[in-house]
Amino acid sequence: MTAHLRLNKHSAEPLYRQLARALRERIAEGVLCVGDKLPPSRQLAAQLGVSRMCVVNAYTELLNEGILMASPGRGTFVAESFGALSDPSALPSVAANPSAGTLSPESVIAFSGGAPAEEFLPVAAIRRSIEAVLERDGATAVAYEETEGYPPLRAAVAQHLASLGIRATPENVLITGGCQQALDLAIQALLNEGDTLLTTSPTYLGILDIARIRRLRVVGVPTDEQGLRTELLESAIIACRPRLIYIAPTHHNPTGSVMPLHRRRVLLRIAAVADIPVLEDGVYHELSYGAEPPPPLKALDEYGVVIHANGFSKIVLPGVRIGYLVVEGALRQRVLRVKQAADICTPSLNQRAMHHFLVSGALSGHLDRVRRACQQRRDVALKAAQRYLPSGARWSVPSGGVYLWIELPHSGVTAAQLYPVALRHGVSFAIGAEFFTDESEPSAAYFIRLNFAQQSASRIEEGMRRLGAAWSEACAVLR
Ligand SMILES: Cc1ncc(COP(=O)(O)O)c(C=O)c1O
């Protein structure tokens, strides 16, 4: 049933996506039928010559979609529909799970994503802003915009950055389609296929996606609770000769760590001496609700090595896709050419609406509310983790951002083993190994990332309870 599966290792599409797609097609064609058991991940990985994580990721994607279902100790099966997950007995010899109840995509408590809570998105304010700019600017609001971005927004961003200690002129602010595009444009402007990108391990999944698509080599430097271990940086640079360092120093995704001031200075000095630009990702910097974090790298940069990428997705709303790059000199021109080729300009209406929102003064009150809500939800998550997660599980207390980064006890199941069981219990999380630059790192397998910001207090509590129960069940069956 899985014979003749072929994956293209030279394709820009990640291998696990290719595999998920191929399995989906086989199910649609009836080659794989409801109730068919899939090969164990280790076996299929060996057959295809790919990593086991690739197969686990593909299975996980299909489990998420409800196309597959997992039964602890028995394996992974083709499900009829997502509804079939609620009725494991519909499949041959699958033990019923009394705690699973009736699951639907809505009733799964998703700790897995990276989005802010929808109920805190300022819908009314952004509607007012959109209406106001359409009324004020008419057709110009829906025409092409300058590739650099809407000039008043660039000026407002420069002013906003001053409050973070970053001195930027409007000319050096380039508006992008979210922070993700800011990162991609900087990378396209600076790196060629085969070049090395150095980052933390673990790191932001989106940067790994960009590196894969742009065919870069990624080298990771280990982290601890203070972020990048700068004492390892010089030797890593000598060993791998990177063209760029990517780093999110404040409320790092996935770990939540904040680099202290002295490490920031060490990083900048090493990068300057080695003449390697640093791409700083600041998307969570302002989502702080604990101690004030140190200034962004860009604010500390005496050497001119930092390119600052940021945006409004995490502090206002992600759907209007407004991000920006602070970039100077010849690089600015190169980034502009790449942006022009990518999408000509970021939508004018969205830029004008975000500008209107910023100059209306709505940001500070909105940000206060979001920070308070995130802090409350973090506290609920910490308390619930303490109560329901197994003893031996470890996490640190994030002072900002939306993630709890948890290391499961190594005496129990791995995150990938826990995942399908957790899904049957009605809770999902992000599998930590995916964030590591080298997934085979032994401890990587035991990490999970939970986004606590998207769920209400009662769902966080219930989600954590389900997670604890899933862990116990998975350990009992799989170990
Ligand atoms: C660290 C990090 N950088 C960048 C982004 C992308 O942000 P945007 O939605 O503005 O493209 C995310 C989104 O999750 C993120 O976590």
SSE blueprint:
Layout: H1 15-29, H2 41-48, H3 52-64, E1 68-71, E2 75-78, E3 109-110, H4 123-137, H5 151-162, E4 173-177, H6 178-190, E5 196-201, H7 205-213, E6 217-224, E7 227-228, H8 233-240, E8 244-247, H9 261-274, E9 278-281, H10 297-300, E10 306-311, E11 322-326, H11 329-343, H12 348-359, H13 362-388, E12 394-395, E13 403-407, H14 415-424, E14 427-428, E15 430-431, E16 447-451, H15 457-478
Parallel strand pairs: 3-14, 5-6, 5-8, 8-9, 9-10
Antiparallel strand pairs: 1-2, 4-11, 6-7, 10-11, 12-13, 13-16, 15-16
Helix pairs in contact: 1-3, 2-3, 3-14, 4-12, 6-11, 13-15, 14-15
The chain binds pyridoxal-5'-phosphate.
Pyridoxal-5'-phosphate (PLP) binds at residues 114, 178-180, 204, 206, 248, 253, 281, 283, 311, 313, 318, 323.
Count of alpha/pi helices: 15
Oligomer: single chain
Mean pLDDT: 91
Termini separation comes to 28 Å
Poorly predicted regions:
81-102
- Hetero compounds: pyridoxal-5'-phosphate
Return the CATH topology of the largest domain. Answer: Aspartate Aminotransferase, domain 2
Q: Report the CATH C-level class of the largest domain.
A: Alpha Beta
Which structural class should the secondary elements be placed in?
Answer: alpha/beta
Shape: globular
How much helix, percentage-wise, in residues? 40-55%
Q: Walk across the major sheet and give the strand order.
A: 4-11-10-9-8-5-6-7
Explained architecture:
There is one protein chain. The protein contains 15 helices and 16 strands. With 479 residues, it is α/β, with parallel strands linked by helices. It folds into three domains: 15-94, Winged helix-like DNA-binding domain superfamily/Winged helix DNA-binding domain (Arc Repressor Mutant, subunit A, Orthogonal Bundle); 110-119 and 364-478, Alpha-Beta Complex (Aspartate Aminotransferase, domain 1); 123-360, Type I PLP-dependent aspartate aminotransferase-like (Major domain) (Aspartate Aminotransferase, domain 2, 3-Layer(aba) Sandwich). Helix 2 packs across helix 3 (52-64), helix 6 (178-190) crosses helix 11 (329-343) and helix 13 packs parallel to helix 15 (457-478). Mean pLDDT is 91; it is low at 81-102. The protein binds pyridoxal-5'-phosphate (PLP). Residues 114, 178-180, 204, 206, 248, 253, 281, 283, 311, 313, 318, 323 line the site of pyridoxal-5'-phosphate.
